[in-house]
Write a structure and sequence with these properties.
Elements: H1 17-34, H2 37-57, H3 64-86, H4 91-99, H5 107-132
Helix pairs in contact: 1-2, 2-3, 2-5, 3-5, 4-5
């Protein structure tokens, strides 16, 4: 009995990240399904940042900004592949896909543009955060 765990000094904490991951995923799917470009981009941004946050908090990765940058680069590559595969290479095709996302032929391109744009924004945000964060 002399070796009892001292539970008085630690309080259990709940992480907010799972809620943000779920909301980000839901908003992403809603934006992609309905075809609302800004909603899809915002959902992917929330999802990507939350995944990076939850991985950092759980100590699976060592640094938030690097994780977010890699995740953003992967999303940008996936988005670019979707755009190229959908045949939306070019300014006219991209603008047409954003303007009319649910037209047959624009569906994959508009979704790829949303995922790619969010990936680029995540990567740029991560690079900026890495540069502006004070050295540890």
């Amino acid at each position: 009995m002399a070796e009892q765990a001292d539970v008085g000094d630690r309080f259990p904490t709940a992480s907010p990240w799972p809620l943000f991951v779920a909301v980000g995923f839901t908003v992403t799917e809603l934006g992609l399904f309905i075809g609302i470009f800004p909603v899809a981009v915002a959902g992917v941004l929330l999802f990507g940042a939350s995944v990076a946050g939850i991985l950092t908090e759980a100590e699976y990765v060592g640094h938030l900004w690097k994780t977010m940058g890699v995740f953003g680069a992967v999303l940008a590559a996936i988005g670019l592949a979707m755009v190229v595969y959908g045949g939306g290479v070019g300014v006219e095709a991209a603008l047409g896909a954003i303007d009319a996302p649910n037209v047959v032929g624009n569906r994959l391109v508009s979704r790829g543009l949303a995922v790619g744009a969010a990936g680029i924004i995540l990567a740029v945000t991560a690079a900026t955060g890495e540069l502006l964060e004070p050295a540890r």
